[in-house]
């Protein structure tokens, strides 16, 4: 009997705590989403809604759309910052060799090389053709081309 | 000796293969602008076009992937609308490659996951970058007015096979009611070219007057002999006249049968006075339905070519005046087929 009572008490306590937990969860969600609503993401809500609609996501709540927009912006910002690190590292190595070109290479350009290196860490393989040749014999020696 | 594909390159450059046609090109351009702004905020001063395109494409795929994962998580839970937990689940799924704090915890609340905290930190620390342009609502739809159905407008459909709940046929810009069903009939008549019982409008009027005569149920033509209906090509003198003629041929029904007969008579009169010039045009496809170039087409073929050449002028004039591109494309197929 004692054991049963103890078990029932435990169950009641668990139910109460889960009920409270649900309230806590609701409050936590509301807080989390409210803090997002204060921030205006760069990617517009209409655009995010358009692309989420393409994947079957239909939700009238703007806060959820803002959440996706912020997450996408964060991802792009992280990739861009990694690419910037690669770009600066490349320029620093060049500057060491040729200090005359220091002023010319000040401009930070987002190149495919830097982007592909940055995206590789995120599991995205981006390969870009360096050049396109007119014919298979382009760039070969004249002797071999004649053959 | 080839020129190394310079012509092809020029063609490709002029057609601009990077531009993907479709409704998504506008949204993609907006994503490009947004991604460019984000990269600029990070410190970049210039972008390679391919790099910006690639990054914007990846951003689009990121959004699509979050949406897909969130929807599937909601469906697994027996819901149709995703909530915040589903979205965080989707974000975690994408961040699992890089890793986040608390990923190995089994009994973790999604709100307290590393991804949610990282997003909150990003919101608090990063600078707000508003989008550079004002956006219309996406997707950008043209001004589309739904045409009323036959039931709604309390009209009977012209043909029995057309159900009344379908929308009404559009009104032609010349002010006469156009019925594509009959237009299609006339076009198919032109395609065959054999089963026509005369010129376009007269066939429709004849069909109206004599519903029993169905050109499609006419007797099959023997292989050797090919009977061609006497085609009355209009003159090419007046462009406006050609417009009317083309209108008669394209538009299936005149409001009254008399009106349709008059231009035919007029055409015949003009024809008797002037012999229209012959224009030979070589088109890419010469596949005709059951038709073969035959010497018996000599006289009628000339007329047909004239008519088709008139169609060319008529179509061009009409396209210029009305600005209807799909009409031209729809007319070009019979034009191609009529030409031998």
UniProtKB/TrEMBL annotation, chain A:
Keywords: Nucleus, Transcription, Transcription regulation. TAFs are components of the transcription factor IID (TFIID) complex that is essential for mediating regulation of RNA polymerase transcription. Belongs to the TAF10 family. Signal peptide: none annotated. InterPro entries: TAF10. One of its GO terms (biological process) is transcription initiation at RNA polymerase II promoter. It is found in: Nucleus. Its main location: nucleus. One of its GO terms (molecular function) is promoter-specific chromatin binding. This is Transcription initiation factor TFIID subunit 10. GO terms for cellular component: SAGA complex; transcription factor TFIID complex. Pfam families: TAF10. It comes from Punica granatum.
TrEMBL record, chain B:
It comes from the Eukaryota. Residues 1-23, 291-340 are annotated as: Disordered. Keywords: Nucleus, Transcription, Transcription regulation. Its main location: nucleus. It is found in: Nucleus. It comes from Punica granatum. Transmembrane segments: none annotated. Residues 1-22, 296-340 have a biased composition (Basic and acidic residues). The gene is LOC116215290. InterPro entries: BTP (IPR006565), Histone-fold (IPR009072), TAF8 (IPR037818). GO terms for cellular component: transcription factor TFIID complex. This is Transcription initiation factor TFIID subunit 8-like isoform X1. GO terms for molecular function: protein heterodimerization activity. Residues 24-100 form the Bromodomain associated domain.
């Amino acid at each position: 009997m004692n054991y049963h009572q103890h078990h029932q008490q435990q169950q009641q306590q668990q139910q109460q705590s889960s009920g409270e937990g649900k309230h806590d969860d609701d409050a936590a969600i509301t807080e989390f989403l409210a803090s997002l609503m204060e921030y205006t993401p760069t990617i517009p809500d209409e655009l995010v809604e358009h692309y989420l609609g393409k994947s079957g996501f239909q939700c009238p709540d703007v806060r959820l759309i803002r959440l996706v927009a912020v997450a996408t912006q964060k991802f792009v910002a992280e990739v861009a910052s990694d690419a910037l690190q690669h770009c600066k590292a490349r320029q620093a190595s060049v500057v060491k060799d040729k200090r005359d070109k220091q002023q010319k290479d000040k401009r930070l350009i987002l190149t495919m090389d830097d982007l592909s290196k940055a995206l590789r860490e995120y599991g995205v393989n981006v390969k870009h053709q360096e050049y396109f040749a007119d014919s298979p014999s382009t760039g070969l020696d004249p002797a071999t081309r004649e053959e | 000796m080839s020129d190394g594909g310079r012509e092809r390159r020029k063609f490709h450059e002029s057609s601009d293969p990077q531009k993907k046609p479709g409704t998504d090109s506008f949204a993609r351009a907006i994503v490009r602008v947004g991604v460019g702004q984000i990269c600029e905020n990070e410190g970049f001063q210039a972008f390679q076009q391919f790099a910006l395109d690639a990054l914007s494409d990846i951003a689009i795929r990121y959004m699509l992937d979050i949406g897909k994962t969130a929807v599937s998580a909601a469906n697994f839970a027996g819901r149709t609308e995703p909530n915040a937990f589903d979205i965080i689940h989707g974000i975690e799924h994408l961040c699992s490659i890089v890793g986040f704090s608390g990923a190995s915890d089994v009994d973790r609340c999604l709100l307290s996951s590393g991804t949610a905290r990282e997003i909150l930190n990003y919101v608090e620390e990063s600078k707000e970058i508003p989008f550079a342009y004002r956006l219309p609502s996406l997707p950008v739809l043209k001004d589309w007015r739904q045409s009323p159905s036959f039931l709604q407008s309390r009209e009977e459909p012209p043909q029995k096979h057309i159900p009344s709940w379908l929308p009404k046929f559009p009104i032609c810009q010349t002010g006469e009611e156009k019925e594509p069903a009959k237009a299609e009939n006339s076009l198919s008549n032109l395609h065959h070219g054999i089963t026509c019982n005369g010129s376009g409008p007269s066939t429709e009027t004849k069909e109206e007057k004599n519903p029993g005569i169905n050109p499609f149920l006419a007797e099959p033509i023997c292989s050797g002999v090919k009977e061609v209906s006497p085609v009355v090509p209009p003159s090419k003198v007046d462009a406006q006249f050609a417009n009317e003629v083309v209108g008669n041929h394209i538009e299936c029904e005149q409001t009254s049968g008399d009106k349709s007969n008059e231009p035919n008579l007029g055409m015949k009169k003009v024809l008797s006075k002037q012999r229209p010039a012959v224009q030979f045009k070589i088109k890419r496809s010469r596949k005709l339905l059951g038709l073969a170039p035959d010497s018996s087409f000599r006289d009628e073929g000339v007329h047909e070519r004239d008519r088709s050449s008139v169609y060319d002028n008529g179509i061009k004039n009409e396209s210029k005046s009305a600005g209807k591109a799909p009409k031209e494309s729809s007319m070009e197929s019979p034009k191609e087929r009529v030409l031998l």
